[in-house]
Write a structure and sequence with these properties.
The complex is a heterodimer of chains A (164) and B (423).
Chain A: E1 3-7, H1 14-17, H2 29-32, H3 44-47, E2 53-56, H4 68-75, E3 80-83, H5 88-96, E4 101-103, E5 114-118, E6 123-126, E7 131-134, H6 140-147, H7 151-158
Parallel strand pairs in A: 1-2, 2-3, 3-4
Antiparallel strand pairs in A: 1-5, 5-6, 6-7
Helix pairs in contact in A: 6-7
Chain B: H1 7-13, E1 26-30, E2 33-37, H2 41-48, H3 59-63, E3 65-68, H4 78-93, E4 97-99, H5 106-114, E5 120-123, E6 137-140, H6 143-152, E7 154-158, E8 162-168, H7 177-188, E9 197-201, H8 203-206, H9 210-218, E10 227-230, H10 234-242, E11 262-267, E12 274-276, E13 284-286, E14 297-300, H11 308-318, E15 328-331, H12 336-344, H13 347-353, E16 357-358, E17 379-382, E18 398-401, H14 404-413
Parallel strand pairs in B: 2-3, 2-5, 3-4, 5-6, 8-9, 8-11, 9-10, 14-15, 14-17, 15-16, 17-18
Antiparallel strand pairs in B: 1-7, 12-13
Helix pairs in contact in B: 2-6, 7-9, 11-14
Classes of the chains: A alpha/beta (164), B alpha/beta (423).
Bound molecules: iron/sulfur cluster (SF4).
């Protein structure tokens, strides 16, 4: 199913994804999700539809380790986050909660473009421009964690923390 | 396979099953300490509940599992008070270590009471890397990773490539570790060390006490790094002895011909007090280039600094002077121990007389959770590590970063100022 691109810039921090001032809502995740990207894209929460994509530049998710950042993005219905590069904690957190984080050339995507993600094939089709964007496979272990829907189900299935 | 090892390879290697690790490898490692806090704890605990009830940990492992209540203390709202109770009760009911509200910021308490050279430490906080100043391989992760580490006492890692930061010369008057790491950030940028480890060495590092080293490694994550590391030497030993943990000391250096991905050489003698301009910690200029920036609030706090040595410098600068009229000056000692020392040495009295608000130890002001929230249009000068948009609780405010000394000088003049004027 295709979804639309929500295009963001470089170096979007976790303070922009889910600001610390909403810390009081962290035990109420659906409420916290209402403030996702509030200072950066005030139209995001109202406009995001199930299956849409967050598309960013370099170093997406820099800053704090708050896992709430990928959690609220996922709760907004986002299918996957695409970026030129990710801050490492955000990257792990996203995969750990079953949200695909894909490193690719997001230069070829504009705000509002319609995208189709072929995760197992390793490419994104930008239907608006008809451009195919290939991406490298993630590490085997991360791929396996994502396939299980996150780290906890992965560990449950294996019965232990093992490399894939 | 190369046999000469970086610090990261050495420490990780001691924690893998086969006793070795080389950069680029993906490995499973045992963890020595695992911690979380009130800002991530409730999410983490909801994960822990998903594990089969049969999985238990030993008493020794319980002593190495720590819950901090430090991010919003004392609780400003009932929601946060409830969250803190989740964390508090979980720790108490499961026989884990509780570092309760008022005890201090997790990274400072980890340095004072737990981290030792050669440890492998993971926590639900990006600045977990602070403990690298004591030569622990320490890195931040999210709630899910840490819940697995708490239950299974292990995690998986990609052994990082290391960037060597060789700092020769010596830091001049009014120039501190904070200025040095800001300079490093201006070179690397906020993603210049993504997935990598920073290893600091050279004469300026040999001469630097642990309090400064902790400031360097604290901000490694601001360059995107997995961790920052400093050798364990006689200064490390002295710090551990002062904290009654001398038995945890061991010498630890990288091997002479260890393989570094890149080397950056700096001369500390050439450094000035440095300032990060809004709104990124890598947007750095020497203080002398920053003219006429009026400041409404000065925050001296956070896990980056405000150890006792920083507080002594602040005291030396304030030294009976008053803060600028109309400026808000908020000082947060990083732990109870530091606070007590500040009282003992007359620093709290001096701060209060200069017009400062001295808060209990904690994170609050640093990330906009409570206290010191700036007004629309306010300019803050902060000794913390981040000035991202909205970080301090109001997206309509702007934040400059610098050393506690630069912050103190700024508080006196009311505009961004060179601390050497007062030293
Ligand atoms: S003081 Fe600031 S940077 Fe340090 S742990 Fe607390 S919130 Fe994070």
């Amino acid at each position: 199913m295709p979804g639309r691109a929500w295009k963001l810039g470089d170096n979007i921090s976790t303070d922009e994804i889910t600001p610390g001032r909403y810390i009081g809502l962290r035990s109420n995740l659906s409420e916290l999700a209402k403030y996702t990207l509030i200072d950066t894209r005030a139209d995001f929460v109202k406009g995001a539809r199930e299956g849409d994509f967050v598309v960013a530049g370099r170093n997406f998710g820099m800053g704090s380790s708050r896992e709430h950042a990928p959690v609220v993005i996922k709760l907004c219905g986002i299918r996957a986050v695409l970026a030129k590069s990710f801050a490492r904690i955000f990257y792990r957190n996203a995969i750990n909660i079953g949200l695909p984080a894909i490193i690719c050339d997001t230069f070829k995507i504009s705000d509002g473009d319609t995208l189709e993600l072929e995760l197992s094939e390793g490419y994104i089709l930008n239907q608006t421009t008809n451009v195919r964007i290939e991406f490298p496979r993630m590490s085997k272990t991360m791929e396996a964690i994502l396939q299980e829907g996150g780290l906890i189900p992965y560990v449950e299935k294996k019965g232990d923390l093992l490399l894939a | 396979m190369r046999t000469a090892k970086t610090l990261a390879e050495k420490i990780i290697g001691e924690h893998t099953g086969n006793g070795s690790a080389s950069s680029g490898e993906i490995v499973i490692v045992k963890v020595d300490y695992v911690f979380s806090h009130d800002a991530s704890g409730p999410l983490l605990i909801s994960n822990l509940d998903k594990f089969p009830s049969g999985s238990t940990i030993s008493n020794e492992e319980k002593r190495r599992t720590i819950f901090f209540i430090d991010h919003a203390v004392p609780a400003p709202t009932k929601e946060l008070a409830n969250d803190q109770n989740i964390v508090r009760n979980y720790a108490i009911n499961n026989g884990l270590v509780l570092s309760d509200a008022g005890n201090g910021i997790c990274h400072q308490v980890m340095a004072e009471d737990y981290a030792s050279p050669g440890n492998l430490i993971v926590g639900t906080d990006s600045h977990t890397c602070t403990a690298g100043g004591l030569c622990s391989f320490a890195t931040g992760m999210g709630a899910t990773d840490i819940s697995v580490a708490m239950k299974l006492r292990k995690t998986w890692l990609r052994v990082p490539e290391s960037i060597k930061i060789d700092v020769g010369g010596e830091l001049g008057r009014g120039v501190f570790a904070k200025d040095l790491i800001l300079k490093v950030l201006s070179i690397l940028g906020t993603d210049g060390a993504l997935y990598k480890s920073l290893e600091f060495c050279g004469s300026a590092i040999d001469d630097m006490d642990v309090y400064g080293r902790l400031t360097l490694t604290n901000m490694a994550v601001e360059c995107g790094a997995k961790t920052g590391l400093v050798q364990s030497d006689s200064r490390t030993r002295k710090y551990l002895e002062e904290n009654r943990r001398g038995e945890g000391w061991r010498e630890l250096f990288p091997d002479e011909s260890a393989g570094y991905e890149t080397e950056i050489s700096l001369d500390a003698t050439e450094l000035e007090p440095e300032v990060a301009l809004p709104s990124s910690p890598d947007n750095v200029r020497p203080v002398s280039e920053i003219k006429d920036v009026k400041v409404n609030e000065v925050f001296i706090g956070s896990c980056t600094n405000t150890r006792i040595e920083d507080m002594r410098v602040v005291a030396r600068i304030l030294n009976g002077r008053q803060k600028a009229k109309g400026l808000k000056l908020i000082v947060t000692p990083s732990s109870r121990k530091v606070y007590l020392k500040c009282i003992e040495e007359g620093i709290v009295e001096l701060l209060l007389s200069s017009g400062a608000i001295v808060t209990p130890p904690g994170c609050g002001v640093c990330f906009g959770a409570l206290g010191g929230i700036p007004a629309d249009g306010d300019v803050i000068f902060s000794s913390s590590n981040r000035n991202f948009p909205g970080r301090t609780g109001n997206p309509k405010a702007q934040t400059y970063l610098g050393s506690p000394a630069t912050a103190a000088a700024t508080a006196i003049n009311g505009y961004v100022s060179d601390p050497r004027e007062f030293l």
